[in-house]
Structures are given as structure tokens and as C-alpha cells.
Amino acid sequence: MSPGRPPLPAPAIGFDDVLAAAARLEGHAHRTPVMTSSTANALTGAQLYFKCENLQRVGAFKFRGAYNAIANLSAADKARGVITYSSGNHAQAIALSARLLDTAAVIVMPADAPAVKIAATRGYGAQVVTYDRLSERREDVTDALVRSRGLTLVPPFDHRDVIAGQGTAALELFREVGELDHLVVCVGGGGLISGCAIAANGCAPSCNVIGVEPQDGDDATRSFRSGELQHSDTAHLTIADGARTPSLGELTFPLLMNYVHDMQTVSDDDLVWTMRFMLERMKLLVEPTGALAAATLLRGRIRLPGARVGVIVSGGNIDLADLARLLAAAPAADSVREAS
User: Fold this and answer.
1) Which residue among 2, 27, 227, 255 has the highest number of C-beta atoms inside a 10 angstrom radius?
2) How far apart are CA 331 and CA 262, in angstroms?
3) Which residue has the higher pLDDT, 5 or 157?
4) Domains plus CATH for the chain?
């Protein structure tokens, strides 16, 4: 809903698709808790409701879309197996979902991906195929495997069933807390915010949906402002590794333009400060990407006094050594008022 521009033709993904995804996920995805914080409310002047997808299976919202996509495949496609490319949460989500749905999974990952992520993906039962990110394109490696093995590709975000599955996080939030004035969601490739915005439109049409990106990966914000798909050459610089996608997708770009009301960015320093606040004050372990939505509120980049605001906490997967390094340089959370 970029102001002053006619809407783009949107893919035929609607609220009914999110409801169907919720039915498929029932009993398989965790119904993650919604948490509140009196300190966060006092700081922002709003009533914040944190949807804790860091406590979802595989530690991130990605399980929702992965499971929904595989569950909706035909029996023949499941028999052939699935494939994706990812070095993080989507890799683990596809691996676990495939195991639960009794199908084989192949995950294309860079050879220099963190060893813990490769081990976790293999631990869920997937075959990991590595590539050299300096000399090979993951899409080329994946396409070759699709052709040679007849596998079905389930991409990380630009897929209708993935988008619908991600939207169930917001659906659960609205069902638990009722109507909201605003819903704030992190943005990488746009699958999560697209699904959540569709859910918001179905549950509470007057709710404003706000997307948040890292400053070094602001392609979606620039796309929203200009009405034309933009790319980022600096997304690899942010600590928010889940938001390092260079651009929105063919499906997610028009969905964002049609259903999202505003876009904001935050700095990496904002993310680290927010991670520390959430760990110390809320006892929540949150990865940098998972802190994007909360950071824009807690750091005062947007102010919504008196409003009821949903905040999607998208994931909690971070190497503990990296966490210690980041937090060592962060200001103490008790400096919240001065810092903001």
C-alpha cells in the first residue's frame, strides 16, 4: 500500500490460503507463546505483544512455510523428494518437515556455512550438497539436481505455500490477542511479511502492517518507496543474516506493495542492543534478524503511543560465541532510556 501509487497486480494468495495452511500445521507446528513486557511498554508508550517464533520448531518461523509447502505436494512429488538452497533456518525447516512427512530432502549449502548449521540440517535427516560460493551459484547447483533427480524445489520465500504457511504466525497472534492497531514484521525476502500481512488483512483490516529491514539491506524499503523492485549490494554486511537476501521475489514484491503500509530500517547497533534487552529483560534468546521488528520500536525509530502493537520475533538461532562477542560490545540494557 505504498502511498500515491496504484496497486500492483498481486498473486492469487489470500486469507483462505493462510487458513488452509493453519489446518495443515495443526498438531505439527508449535503454537508459540505471545509475551508482554511492562518495561517495553513503558519505554515505547504502546502495548506490545511479542509473537515468539524463536520458540518454534527449528528455532524459527521457517518451519511453518516449509511444512505447509511439503504437506501440500502431491504423492508423486513427495515420492521424488524435495530440494532447497539455504545456509540457515530454511535449510533446517525443510529437513525436519521432510522427515516428518516421510520424503527425502536435499539441501544445497555453501561449503563455508557454519558447521553447526550443516550438522543440524544433516541431523534432521537431509542430504547436504555443498558448493563454493566464490565460484558457483547456488541456483545453478540446485537446478542441476532438480533436472537429474526430478526433485521438487521449495525455495526459501518466493513460493505461495511457503508464504501462506508463514502467515499462520500472525493468524495465531490475532486469534490470541484480538485486533491490533499495528503489526511489525522483519523483512528479508518478504515471505514472512507477505503471509502476515495477508493474515492481518483477513483478521483486522484496519491494522497497519510495518516491515523492518537492516540499514545495510534496505532493498525492500527502497522498493516500497519507489514502486520498483530494487536490489541491495550491501546486504551481506549486516549481522542480520536472515535478511541478507539481495531483493524481494516475484511473488513477495507485489504482495508487499499491496498489503504493507510502511517500511523502516534499523542499524546493527540497534539490533545488538535489542537482543541484549530481550535476553536480560524478557529472558528471550533472539537472533539479529529476529530482533528487527522489536528494535524499531524499542529504539524509538517509530513511535506508536497508546497503540496495541503486534511484534513478530522471527527466530532465535545464533551461535553462542557470536552472541557473546556481540553482547560484549553492547551497552547495558539499563541504559535504555538514555540510549533511545
Assistant:
1) 255
2) 29
3) 157
4) 15-60+161-339 (3.40.50.1100), 63-159 (3.40.50.1100)
Is 2 a known active-site residue? no
**Range with top average pLDDT, 1-5, 206-210, 243-247:** 206-210
- For the chain, the straight-line distance linking the first and the last C-alpha, in angstroms and rounded, comes to 29
pTM given for the model: 0.93
Q: For the residues of 294-334, what is the DSSP string, one character each?
A: HHHHHTTSS--TT-EEEEEE-B----HHHHHHHHHTSPPGG
- CA atoms 273, 278, 280, 286: torsion sign: negative
Q: Is 64 exposed, middle or buried (0-12, 13-18, 19+ CB in 10 A)?
A: buried
Q: Catalytic site residue 219?
A: yes
Active site residue 310: no
Task: Say which DSSP state 158 is in.
Answer: S
Catalytic residue among 158, 213, 218, 241: 213
Q: Which candidate in 87, 97, 223, 232 is catalytic?
A: 87
Cα separation, 129 vs 103, in Å, equals 17
Establish whether 267 is a catalytic residue. no
Which residue of the set 17, 53, 172, 219 is catalytic? 219
Which tens digits make up the pLDDT trace of 123-146?
A: 999 999 999 978 998 889 999 999
Residue 338 in this model has a pLDDT that exceeds 50:
no
φ, ψ (nearest 5 deg) of residue 316:
-135, 25
Contact 158, 184 (CB under 8 A): no
Sheet holding 127-131, edge to edge: 127-131, 105-110, 82-85, 152-153
